């Protein structure tokens, strides 16, 4: 390691703090140019560990004074370094430590700690931002009650908010005013929040099951009041759902949400004062797409659900992050499944898991759900901790059943309410609440410890004379960084056997007395394991991992005919979709291989027919059909190849899309017109499904490459009133060389230039086009007046979307890589978290051909040698180069 390179923090080094902080009294004096923070910490020795000094974390703080009790300390009484303030010789029976610090929120571009967004003050303290506000033991196992006084100019900052209840407020000299907030629930400092600004709010009420009346408020910048209704409805649905599904009620009289335009992530669950990225609050049918509406419902629920899973019970240390995130994502997935179509939601979640988490697992930044080391914790808010973590929760649910899972959850809260705990504590609650379940918990625990995506393969043989079917399954888990050897996982295989008539056969394993009808869960525990079913009347097609019961890659020896059969008959909708995807991926990769070998690519008629079948059933379930019509993405297909053939994948996929468009023109047109806008606008699952299938049909008609699709897209773009339809059409136009392209894009920008979230879509559709001009256009857009590299949403919309562009980012020659290196270097100084998220796009560089690898390596090394590289970027880049 280089001299002076940042040090890793290790899970095995965890020790409890030498001091507890029980009470925190904060006073903020907000002035233009500086903020003075006074903190009074009520401390108490932790007698369970050896005596030691009180070591407080701090970052970019100017310490003005320190006192213990009423005794001011001189510079010899404490040690202050850039990162710590250390106090020795504190009284064993406790004390109040008072510190005054000066900070500068207006120059905080990292958006961590106290900062300004559009002139309003707000905070982001997870994971370690509180140390940029005051000296503190910035670790989640230190839980305190907070009392917060905020003072600011009344006119400029009429709204003053913090956690808990407003207990007092008043005027101060010089046109200033103040508010005093008290949060009775002990919390870790990462849940602290403060907002001061010129904001308006919408208000509603919710009465909890036990009769508590809760005031619900959503604060936004003036002018956005009319875009908060969906978020408010989502909040109320979440509160009700959590009572019904988990028996969990809200625990204060007030719940506030504030939406800010500058935010690194989606949202933050600060106790009773959630702070959101505007992207997950603001929506009106003419400004937001169906995806936005659904995203709002999910994220509002997610943050609300954290009130129990994260806040009431929190993490002992940051290695346990998935304790709250995996569980809360699983809960928001369950909620959204209940509010919408469960199979559609599951397909969308699995698509995302494969696209981003499987890719992470296969690259240099692979890590377990519970990591064992990190350099910068902000780098671990990952698809593995969140989405794979949610799959682990789903596996508890699958193995224990809904009732057993709920018993485990109830025991978890009974044991740990008010505590900071570990994923082992969670597992123990699940285990102890279900003593009669034969689950090998030590083996199950490997889901937290071993990184990588298990690969499951297998085959089946039917023996007609004995009416037995033998299913053989094998599992392997490839080495990942730091984990050369892996042990077999406990893999729940939810499955059925589909008989020749398309119905599920009764399932009876050898030695069992009674058959199960439909679906059952097998436990795959060995590297190789046989399951023998008896009394099987006819040769079946197995349906494996129904509902995607485990986060694994399956390769089973299905024939194309088996897959077509499952597409049509499987009783499990997820696996009907899955069979189609497997078939499509197989076909597409075959074409890529043909092209690479210099052969013509010929699309088999059987596949085109299968798509025709799907299309003919569009009326039964439009939303499902839209998903079934969508071919696996280029990025996902790339994951299935040893060396990614960028141009081959694109050529094959475009050929198949064009073929489908031309072959099924009539039914695509019928689907398009049959699902075009009827009645008033609604975001019901049915209405969303109709728009999705209509726009999927439009995309195929466009791919057919003649005037008809283009005319339809243009007409839709010009006449549609809902943003879903406008953007669907504009994206197709922007990805084409239609003469109307430039005018359509500039008309859109002229109409929406005052709406940042709408402009994000405009940047995104240009950045994701496969046209050869894309990189040049993205470069030019960096100087567009609507772009601002300090705003994370803009960076994600333009630069982030470009890095997800399978063709343009990876174009031969490496210009895309060079462009990204420049942006990462620029962002590194402004916002390390955002810089590091962008740098992750390099992670898969070793999966491309030699020429691309060489270009990516040059770019990565250039970033690595940047002076003053943040820990965030250093960690990602150094791991990528290892
Ligand atoms: N806990 C939040 C996500 C979050 C994490 C870190 C942040 O800043 C570094 C901000 C938000 C959630 O899961 O929603
Ligand atoms: Zn979360």
Write up this protein.
The chain is of the alpha+beta class and 882 residues long. 40% of the residues lie in helices and 21% in strands. It has an eight-stranded mixed beta sheet with strand order 6-5-9-3-2-12-15-14, with no helix packed on it. Strand 2 and strand 3 form a beta hairpin. The termini are close together. The mean pLDDT is 98. O-methyl-L-tyrosine is lined by residues 124, 126-127, 264-269, 302-303, 325, 378, 381, 833.
SSE topology sketch:
Blueprint: E1 9-10, E2 19-31, E3 34-45, E4 54-57, E5 62-68, E6 71-72, E7 78-80, E8 84-87, E9 95-103, E10 113-117, E11 120-124, E12 143-153, E13 159-162, E14 165-172, E15 176-188, E16 194-197, E17 200-207, E18 213-220, H1 229-246, E19 254-260, E20 267-268, E21 273-277, H2 290-305, E22 314-315, H3 321-339, H4 342-361, E23 373-374, H5 383-416, E24 420-421, H6 423-432, H7 441-444, H8 446-449, E25 455-463, E26 468-476, E27 491-498, E28 520-524, E29 528-533, E30 541-543, E31 553-556, H9 560-569, H10 573-596, H11 605-616, H12 622-629, H13 634-639, H14 646-663, H15 665-674, H16 685-703, H17 707-719, H18 723-734, H19 741-752, H20 756-767, H21 774-781, H22 792-803, H23 815-830, H24 832-839, H25 850-864, H26 871-881
Parallel strand pairs: 2-12, 18-19, 19-21, 22-24, 25-31
Antiparallel strand pairs: 1-23, 2-3, 3-9, 4-8, 5-6, 5-9, 7-8, 10-11, 11-16, 12-15, 13-16, 14-15, 17-18, 20-21, 25-26, 26-29, 27-28, 27-30
Helix pairs in contact: 1-2, 2-3, 3-4, 3-5, 4-5, 5-6, 9-10, 10-14, 12-16, 14-16, 15-16, 16-17, 16-18, 17-18, 18-20, 19-20, 20-22, 23-24, 23-25, 24-26, 25-26
The structure holds O-methyl-L-tyrosine (0A1) and zinc ion.
């Amino acid at each position: 390691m280089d001299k002076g390179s940042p040090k890793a923090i290790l899970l095995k080094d965890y020790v409890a703090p030498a001091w507890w902080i029980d009470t925190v009294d904060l006073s903020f004096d907000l002035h233009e140019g500086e903020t003075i923070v006074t903190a009074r910490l009520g401390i108490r020795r932790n007698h369970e560990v050896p005596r030691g000094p009180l070591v407080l974390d701090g970052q970019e703080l100017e310490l003005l004074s320190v006192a213990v009790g009423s005794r001011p300390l001189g510079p010899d009484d404490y040690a202050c370094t850039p990162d710590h303030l250390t106090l020795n010789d504190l009284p064993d029976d406790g004390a109040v430590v008072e510190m005054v610090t000066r900070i500068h929120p207006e120059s905080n571009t990292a958006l961590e700690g106290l900062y300004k967004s559009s002139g309003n003050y707000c905070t982001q303290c997870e994971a370690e931002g509180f140390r940029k506000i005051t000296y503190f033991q910035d670790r989640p196992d230190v839980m305190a009650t907070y009392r917060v006084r905020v003072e600011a100019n009344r006119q400029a900052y009429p709204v003053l908010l913090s956690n808990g209840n407003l207990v007092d407020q008043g005027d101060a000299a010089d046109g200033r005013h103040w508010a005093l907030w008290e949060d009775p629930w002990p919390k870790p400092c990462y849940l602290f929040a403060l907002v001061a600004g010129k904001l308006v709010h919408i208000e509603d009420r919710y009465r909890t099951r036990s009769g508590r009346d809760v005031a619900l408020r959503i604060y936004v910048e003036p002018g956005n009041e009319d875009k908060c209704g969906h978020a408010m409805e989502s909040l109320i649905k979440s509160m009700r759902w959590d009572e019904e599904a988990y028996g969990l009620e809200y625990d204060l009289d007030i719940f506030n949400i504030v939406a800010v335009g500058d935010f690194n992530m989606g949202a933050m669950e600060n106790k009773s004062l959630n702070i959101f990225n505007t992207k997950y609050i603001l929506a009106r049918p003419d400004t937001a797409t169906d995806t936005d509406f659904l995203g709002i419902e999910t994220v509002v629920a997610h943050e609300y659900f954290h009130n129990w899973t994260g806040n009431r019970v929190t993490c002992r240390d940051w290695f346990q992050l998935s304790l709250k995130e995996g569980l809360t994502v699983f809960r928001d997935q369950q909620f959204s499944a209940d509010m919408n179509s469960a199979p559609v939601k599951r397909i969308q979640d699995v698509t995302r898991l494969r696209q981003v988490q499987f890719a992470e697992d296969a690259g240099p930044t692979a890590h377990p759900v519970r990591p064992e080391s990190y350099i910068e914790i902000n780098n671990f808010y990952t698809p593995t901790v969140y989405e794979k973590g949610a799959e682990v929760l789903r596996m508890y649910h699958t193995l224990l059943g809904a009732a057993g899972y709920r018993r485990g959850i109830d025991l978890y809260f009974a044991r740990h309410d008010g505590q900071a705990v570990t994923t082992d504590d969670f597992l123990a609650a699940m285990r102890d609440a279900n003593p009669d379940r034969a689950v090998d918990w030590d083996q199950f625990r490997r889901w937290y410890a071993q990184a990588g995506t298990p690969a499951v393969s297998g085959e089946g043989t039917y023996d007609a004379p004995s009416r037995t079917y033998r299913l053989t399954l094998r599992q392997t888990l490839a080495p990942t960084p730091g984990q050369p050897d892996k042990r077999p996982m406990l893999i729940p295989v939810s499955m059925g056997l589909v008989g020749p008539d398309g119905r599920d056969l009764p399932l009876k394993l050898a030695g069992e007395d009674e058959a199960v009808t439909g679906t059952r869960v097998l436990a795959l525990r060995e590297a190789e394991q046989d399951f023998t079913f008896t009394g099987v009347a006819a040769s079946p097609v197995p349906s494996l991992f129904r509902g995607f019961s485990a986060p694994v890659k399956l390769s089973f020896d299905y024939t194309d005919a088996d897959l077509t059969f499952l597409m049509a008959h499987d009783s499990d909708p997820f696996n009907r979709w899955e069979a189609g995807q497997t078939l499509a991926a197989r076909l597409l990769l075959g074409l890529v291989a043909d092209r690479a070998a210099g052969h013509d690519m010929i699309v088999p008629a059987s596949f085109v027919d299968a798509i025709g079948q799907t299309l003919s059933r569009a009326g039964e379930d439009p939303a499902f059909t839209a998903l079934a019509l969508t071919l696996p993405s280029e990025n996902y297909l790339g994951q299935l190849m040893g060396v990614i053939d960028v141009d081959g994948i694109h050529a094959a996929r475009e050929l198949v899309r064009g073929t489908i468009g031309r072959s099924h023109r009539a039914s695509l047109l019928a689907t398009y017109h049959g699902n075009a806008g009827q009645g008033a606008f609604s975001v019901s699952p049915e209405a969303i499904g109709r728009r999705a299938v209509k726009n999927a049909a439009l995309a195929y008609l466009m791919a057919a490459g003649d005037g008809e699709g283009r005319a339809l897209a243009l007409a839709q773009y010009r006449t549609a009133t809902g943003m879903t339809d406008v953007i669907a059409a504009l994206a197709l136009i922007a990805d084409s060389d239609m003469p109307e392209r430039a005018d359509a894009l500039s008309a859109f920008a002229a109409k929406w230039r005052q709406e940042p979230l709408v402009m994000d879509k405009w940047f995104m559709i240009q950045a994701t086009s496969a046209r050869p001009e894309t990189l040049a256009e993205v470069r030019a857009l960096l100087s567009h007046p609507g772009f601002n590299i300090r705003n994370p949403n803009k960076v994600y919309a333009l630069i982030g979307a470009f890095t997800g562009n399978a063709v343009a980012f990876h174009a031969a020659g490496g210009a895309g890589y060079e462009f990204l290196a420049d942006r990462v270097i620029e962002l590194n100084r402004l916002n390390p978290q955002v810089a590091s998220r962008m740098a992750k796009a390099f992670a898969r560089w070793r999966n491309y051909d030699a020429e691309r690898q060489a270009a990516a390596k040059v770019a990565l090394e250039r970033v690595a040698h940047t002076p003053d590289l943040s820990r965030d970027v250093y960690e990602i880049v150094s791991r990528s180069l290892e």
